């Protein structure tokens, strides 16, 4: 199910020209954004870009200075947090230490107008969903960090909110548990159909769990797209550089048949790119290409784009190595190659003269 494939799909959340100021500081700057029902949506960006502020406005803990926020077509700005069909799971989990897992999950339901006999069924369902059945009678200090995280999740889903906000939900877990828990989160999101909005610093996490990602910078949206679009087709140099590793090279464009050339150094051949971008000739631009799209070889290959250089650095990463290749004075290109030979740490070594090559569809031309 991919809601963005269906243009008729109504958005669950709509931010319309939302601005949030704290004194004269603008934390959110005239932001417009739709989030669809049943999406797993990630807000990603550097510290201070406004992710948490945006999420707190959804929860009702901050009020926009300007603009409106709609949930199912209803303006929720005047609606207090506890009357919104929205729940928020905090990083600290905030579990009650003296209550059992069962009682922690039931807590919010008991304070609602849900009939008593339904509460038990609902808690049991949440315990199953989060695979906590065996731990129902334990107190928070008698379970692991990952299990506590699941209790917090079960509790925040118990009232079946339309929207669940997750603020760095896996921040307290170690890397391995974090990776496992990402898949659990995805399963739970899919089986409940609840719309999840996650705030994270961790780009890998955003790319793993989310169906769409918003990259934010300075209170604005730099790009909103699926993880693969963000990675393969970033629209600005900021996004290209923020997500993953990238080679960026500044130059000027000229139009060719079916594409363009990027002229970056008078003594070097231009880079050929097939592109639909409506750039005019002689525009200042950047060519962006991921290191794994750049092939490295000892012999000159027959390819559209070929550059010769010298290896000046190697990062050994186990399955792959990243080679830093100087292609012109002070211009370093990174290329990745798989390490296939057993017990051989690398295929090439320092000072090797090598050829870098790539196809004309492997990179993109960016003007911002
Ligand atoms: P982080 O990843 O570090 O949590 P963030 O992207 O979530 O960052 P926000 O917490 O949304 O960032 O903050 C955005 C900006 O607004 C920051 O510069 C922050 O200092 C400022 N800000 C947030 N809340 C307030 C407040 N109550 N008063 C004044 N400034 C605030």
Q: What is the H/E order? A: EEEHEEEHHHEHEHEEHHEEEEEEEEEE
Helical fraction = 10-25%
What characteristic shape results from the CA principal axes? elongated
Strands, count: 20
| Bound small-molecule species | adenosine-5'-triphosphate
Structure overview:
The complex is composed of two ATP-binding proteins (PotA), two transmembrane proteins (PotB and PotC) and a solute-binding protein (PotD). The protein is of the alpha+beta class and 368 residues long. It folds into two domains: 236 residues, P-loop containing nucleotide triphosphate hydrolases (Rossmann fold); 122 residues, RNA polymerase II/Efflux pump adaptor protein, barrel-sandwich hybrid domain (OB fold (Dihydrolipoamide Acetyltransferase, E2P)), CATH 2.40.50.100. Helix content is 23%, strand content 35%. The chain has a six-stranded mixed β-sheet, sandwiched between helices. A five-stranded antiparallel β-sheet has the order 13-12-11-14-20. A hairpin with a 2-residue loop joins strand 1 and strand 2. Helix 2 packs across helix 3 and helix 2 packs parallel to helix 4. The longest helix is centred in the middle third of the chain and has 18 residues. The protein is elongated, with a radius of gyration of 25 Å. It starts with 10 loop residues before the first strand and ends with a strand. The model has no long low-confidence stretch (mean pLDDT 89). It binds adenosine-5'-triphosphate (ATP). The site of adenosine-5'-triphosphate (ATP) has 12 residues, from strand 2 and helix 1.
């Amino acid at each position: 199910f991919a809601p963005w494939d269906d243009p008729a799909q109504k958005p669950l959340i709509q931010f319309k020209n939302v601005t949030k100021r704290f004194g004269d500081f603008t934390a959110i700057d005239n932001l417009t954004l739709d989030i669809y029902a049943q999406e797993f949506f990630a807000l990603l960006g550097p510290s201070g870009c406004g992710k948490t502020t945006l999420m707190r406005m959804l929860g009702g803990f901050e009020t926009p200075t300007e603009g409106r926020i709609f949930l199912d077509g209803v303006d929720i700005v005047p609606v207090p947090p506890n009357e919104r069909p929205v729940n928020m799971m905090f990083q600290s989990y905030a579990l009650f230490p003296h209550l059992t897992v069962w009682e922690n999950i039931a807590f919010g339901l008991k304070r609602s107008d849900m009939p008593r006999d339904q509460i038990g069924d609902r808690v049991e369902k949440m315990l199953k969903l989060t695979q906590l059945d065996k731990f129902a009678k334990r107190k928070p200090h008698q379970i692991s960090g990952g299990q506590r995280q699941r209790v917090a999740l079960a509790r925040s889903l118990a009232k079946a909110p339309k929207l669940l906000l997750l603020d760095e939900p896996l921040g307290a877990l170690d890397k391995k548990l974090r990776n496992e828990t990402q898949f659990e989160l995805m399963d739970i999101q899919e089986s409940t159909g609840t719309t999840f909005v996650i705030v994270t610093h961790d780009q890998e996490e955003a790319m793993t769990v989310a169906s769409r990602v918003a990259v934010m910078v300075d209170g604005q949206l730099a790009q909103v797209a699926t993880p693969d679009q963000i990675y393969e087709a970033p629209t600005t140099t900021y996004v290209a550089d923020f997500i993953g590793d990238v080679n960026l090279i500044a130059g000027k464009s000229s139009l060719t048949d079916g594409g363009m050339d990027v002229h970056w150094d008078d003594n070097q051949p231009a880079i050929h790119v097939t592109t639909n971008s409506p750039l005019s000739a002689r525009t200042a631009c950047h060519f962006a290409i991921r290191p794994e799209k750049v092939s490295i070889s000892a012999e000159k290959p027959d390819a559209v784009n070929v550059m010769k250089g010298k290896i000046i650095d190697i990062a050994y990463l186990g399955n792959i190595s990243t080679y830093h290749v100087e292609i012109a004075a002070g211009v370093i290109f990174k290329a990745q190659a798989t390490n296939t030979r057993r017990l051989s740490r690398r295929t090439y070594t320092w000072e090797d003269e090598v050829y870098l090559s790539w196809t004309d569809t492997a990179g993109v031309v960016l003007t911002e």
